[in-house]
Amino acid sequence: MRLYLAVLSGGFRRHATYRMATAAGVFTNTVFGFVLAFTYTALWEERPRLGGYDLPEALAYVWLGQALLAACSLMGGGFEDELIERIRTGDIAVDLHRPADLQAWWLAADLGRAAFQLLGRGAVPMAVGACAFDLALPEHPLTWPAFLVSVALGVVVSFAVWFLVALSVFWLMDGAGVVQVAWLSGLFFSGMLLPLTVFPGGLGEVARMLPWASMLQVPADVFLEKRTGWGLLEAYAFQAGWALVLLGAGRLLQAVATRRVVVQGG
Amino acid sequence: MWIRSTMTYRFSFVMTLLSNAVANFFDFVVILMMFTHVRGLGGFSFAEVAFLYGTTGTAFGLADLAIGQVGKVGRRVRDGTLDTLLVRPVPVLAQVAADRFALRRLGRVTQGLLVLVWSLVVLDGVEWTPLKVAMVPLMTLTGALIFGSLMTAGAAFQFWAQDGAEVANSFTYGGNTLLQYPPSVFAGDLVRGVVYVVPLAFVNWVPALYVLGRDAPAGLPSWAAFAPPLVAAVCVAAAGLAWRAGLRSYRSTGS
């Protein structure tokens, strides 16, 4: 356990080192936040209460999306590039000999990264958004910790998905294609482009059941106090359920994949 | 060479090509979904928004295909591998653009073109004159030059800010998203900013509003619709200067 805590804080500090990249990311998130906030305003002015949100809630949703984009690796950019590279080059053989579990190691590192991204790339755009637009903020103080729990669960689900993506490289050798499909799904089905409650009919129902909903739609609904009391527990159960299923699948795939590793001698 | 290397992993190539087209397509699905709920956005009909989407998408796709790789130069600056490019007798910019040339970017252009053609089919109420017809291909080309200049300028910026690639993205990708929607959606200051400061509006807003028979944004005179070639030329020149200044300030890494 101490080992994984050290890996976690290492992940945090490692990402905290890239100050320029963080500042550039904050700038980008803010620019996109503005563009989206204006288009949402045009949309909600035509159709007030679309998807069950009023305008301040829809605007809060936009900025939450920008704040969680990096933390939940909705478009990738977490640990997967590095893990894929290690699998491709064969360095993974070294990792497998370490007295630490592969999945747990990367999960700890990714949690550290996400914690930094939430602070570094989430807080500032959210604050800018709150200054420039009229956002719906939680009325109940306990909503904030409830929201953070939901974000943490979302990060774990996101990790579990990306871990599966990375392991597929054991078979495919080149990860570019799967990675791209994964970030597209993340972007679309997390509700980053448009809240999943606005998706029409069957598409919306399916989208709300998929794991990506845990990464933005569910935390946002917790933040907007759409999920309270039993609804909150249901939301947690939904996220935790996907986390367990996907982590389990990752574990299984890891066991199969490691049997494929052939160490080249020389 | 990069085309052949890409083809080695055929499954991955097909997936990236498809997902690149789908990446843009999702933007468009969002607009489609918006229009299942509303009749107009900022006073613009669906066909008009699709026209804006198609013109910026094609222009962005062309620029991305030709020079999109240039944004990756920050990595070469950081690890010092730019040195290898400096000693070769080919302009550095051309080498950086061709480095890891990604054929999959064709997906983006194709998808932009498809929406553009489709929007031309469904647009009604436009009185087509020879001038307006000529304006459509012209503005995708000048738009591509403007986007390409921004990408180059963003890359030049990375000679100083070594991992600031995302700042450039917010102008290129962010600009592309902005231009998919009519200017009436955005606050006046933002529109004035992309007309007079970063001339993104000349990629499609200014010429497209002329084609659609609407007023130019931010109080521009109507003849501004013919300014895009001039604006593109200025942008290319400015980006070229920025790139040369950046390259001159490059110091390799030592260890």
UniProtKB/TrEMBL annotation, chain A:
InterPro entries cross-referenced by the UniProt entry: ABC-2_transporter-like (IPR010390)
Name used for this protein in its record: ABC transporter permease
Chain segments annotated as transmembrane: 21-40, 60-79, 146-172, 178-199
Domain of life assignment: Bacteria
Key words of the record: Membrane, Transmembrane, Transmembrane helix
PANTHER family: INTEGRAL MEMBRANE PROTEIN, SLR1174 PROTEIN-RELATED
Species this chain originates from: Streptomyces kanasensis
